[in-house]
């Protein structure tokens, strides 16, 4: 196995460890953990099976193989960012509703005027 | 009476007092949209009830909070005004009469026969353009789609308590109301320059507002009815 393959494998392993550590500390949920572990597995697979990207590029009709890799990475990242923005919008709506409920529950009324002698 | 306020400590006291004098039997609720100043305290000492957002949520959410309060406390009519004193309470009766006469959403228009404060030329031009688009989408003539001086009754009150557009709600909510089949009516009202504080609409924000509202309206056409 070449040095570059080992380097990428090491990177994938370190990344996977970081993801598992975050999941153990409950900083990420299972769904996101699974997606990121899948990314690590894909990176590791490409490091071991180096011709995979050539076959993929050929299948996609792309002459320069690294371009296929860039395209796939960019498309994946774009999709991820889009999903994140949907999630942010959903949480914003929830937060707004929660803030409205807090406001309604903590209604304040003016003090009634004090009568003489009080 | 729903008064929406953000950073209005300079104006809210006088506005509440004026509203209470104009409509002595009405309950006045100030929705403080997370003001960092003394808006809540000033409104309370002026005799209003106050609900305060823990942080700034925008005018659309403030309107919906006020309507939600009204719906939950069994009010059948709610009149929304701005806390900066721009909406003359003397016109409130006309809006309430429109609801009593069957309108579910009565919109106060600056362009009726009542003598009123005129905003800048650019804003008036923007408003005219928006009025055409909203009128076309709503299928009826509407002259003042950005007016926040409005009364809610009938089905419109509970509907807008739960559904509200993002950011600036006025033009979009007219299209929603029309698509829901609510009875709309424009009522000439008097508006004045703001009493204190600062408008949140700078020229750049106004342009951005126009673009954003236009996009929201275009998207609205593509949606199915709620």
Explain the overall architecture.
The complex is a heterodimer of chains A (118) and B (226). Chain A is mostly helical. Chain A has 2 domains: 50 residues; 40 residues. In chain A, helix 1 runs antiparallel to helix 2 and helix 3 crosses helix 4. The longest helix of chain A has 41 residues. Chain A is elongated. By secondary structure, chain B is of the alpha/beta class. Chain B has one domain: Spore Coat Polysaccharide Biosynthesis Protein SpsA, Chain A (Alpha-Beta Complex). Chain B contains 8 helices and 7 strands, in the order E-H-E-H-E-H-E-H-E-H-E-H-H-E-H. In chain B, helix 1 links the parallel strand 1 and strand 2. The relative contact order of chain B is 0.17. The mean pLDDT of chain B is 87. Classes of the chains: A mainly alpha (118), B alpha/beta (226). The interface between A and B is medium-sized, with 12 and 21 residues.
Overview in brief:
The complex is a heterodimer of chains A (118) and B (226). Chain A is mostly helical.
List the defining traits of the structure above.
heterodimer; A: 118 residues; mainly alpha; 77% helix; elongated; B: 226 residues; alpha/beta; Spore Coat Polysaccharide Biosynthesis Protein SpsA, Chain A; 7 strands; 13% strand; globular
Q: Biggest sheet of chain B: strands, sense, closure?
A: 7 strands, mixed
Poorly predicted spans of chain B: none
Shape by Cα distribution of chain B: globular
Total tally of structural domains of chain A: 2
What structural class is derived from the secondary structure elements of chain A?
Answer: mainly alpha
Subunit arrangement of the protein: heterodimer
SSE order of chain A in H/E notation? HHHH
With strands numbered from the N-terminus, the spatial order across the biggest sheet of chain B is 3-2-1-4-6-5-7
How many beta-strand runs of chain B? 7
What's the count of strands of chain A?
A: 0
Q: For the residues shown, what is the average pLDDT of chain A?
A: 90
Largest sheet of chain A: none
């Amino acid at each position: 196995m070449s040095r570059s393959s080992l380097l990428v494998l090491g990177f994938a392993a370190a990344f996977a460890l970081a993801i598992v550590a975050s999941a153990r500390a409950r900083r990420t949920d299972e769904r996101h953990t699974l997606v990121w572990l899948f990314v690590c597995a894909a990176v590791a697979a490409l490091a071991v099976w180096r011709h995979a990207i050539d076959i993929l590029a050929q299948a996609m009709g792309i002459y320069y193989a690294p371009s296929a890799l860039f395209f796939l990475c960019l498309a994946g990242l774009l999709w991820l960012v889009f999903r994140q923005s949907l999630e942010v919008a959903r949480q914003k709506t929830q937060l707004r509703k929660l803030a409205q409920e807090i406001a309604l529950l903590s209604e304040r009324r003016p003090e009634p005027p004090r009568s003489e002698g009080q | 009476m729903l008064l929406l306020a953000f950073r209005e400590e300079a104006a809210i006291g006088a506005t509440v007092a004026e509203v209470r004098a104009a409509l002595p039997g009405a309950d006045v609720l100030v929705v403080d949209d997370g003001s960092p100043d003394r808006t809540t305290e000033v409104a309370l000492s002026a005799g209003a009830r106050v609900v305060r957002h823990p942080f700034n949520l925008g005018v659309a959410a403030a309107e919906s909070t006020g309507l939600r309060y009204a719906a939950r406390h069994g009010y059948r009519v709610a009149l929304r005004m701005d806390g900066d004193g721009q909406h003359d309470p003397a016109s409130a009766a006309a809006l309430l009469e429109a609801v009593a006469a069957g309108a579910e959403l009565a919109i106060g228009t600056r362009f009726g026969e009542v003598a009123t404060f005129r905003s800048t030329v650019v804003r008036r031009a923007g408003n005219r353009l928006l009025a055409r688009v909203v009128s076309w989408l709503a299928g009826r003539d509407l002259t003042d789609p950005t007016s926040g001086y409005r009364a809610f009754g009938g089905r419109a009150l509970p509907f807008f308590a739960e559904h509200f557009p993002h950011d600036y709600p006025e033009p979009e909510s007219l299209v929603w109301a029309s698509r829901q089949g609510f009875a709309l009516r424009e009522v000439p009202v008097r508006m004045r320059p703001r009493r204190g504080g600062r408008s949140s609409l700078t020229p750049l924000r106004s342009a951005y507002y126009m673009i954003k509202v236009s996009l929201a309206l275009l998207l609205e056409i593509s949606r199915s009815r709620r």
